[in-house]
Amino acid sequence: xxxxxxxxxxAAVVVxxxxxxxxxxxxxxxxxxxxxxxxxxxxDPEPEPTAEPVEREDPEDFIRRWREVSTEMQNxxxxxxxxxxxxxxxxxxxxxxxxxxFYEQGGYIKTDGVSLSDFEYVGRVGRVREYRYLVExxxxxxxxxxxxxxxxxxxxxxxxxxxxxxxxDTWKILDYGTYVP
Length: 181
What we know:
single chain; 4 helices; 33% helix
């Protein structure tokens, strides 16, 4: 809008200067031209909003999805999808690195994962939110390498926690673990 105003002012100055220069030639310019005023451009209308307000995934749904992706990662050794769900999460990096190492060394993990219930919103600090929930873990079998002994985790029940932050229409994991009161 400022550029249009400058253009209009420059145009008015050019018209005025052209009239003054023609007077200097000695020619009879004839009747004086009607003064012209450059029209003031209409202000630009307010732009239409281009984006809908972000409707973010429900935190509990995201946490459940994250645990499902974790189970798939453990059963396949493919960490790509799991790594997309967190930022700067040491415990997430530790799990993903262990899974990669097991599979690179010829090992494996067999698990049905966990079920989550009794979510409790603990609170927030800035954009970070913390939730606690009850975890029912299924028994898990794993080998750390091709030559390692088969090991087992019994499964069972414990209280977990997770810290998340908003990220566009979803969330990112920042930390997780077992809640110890």
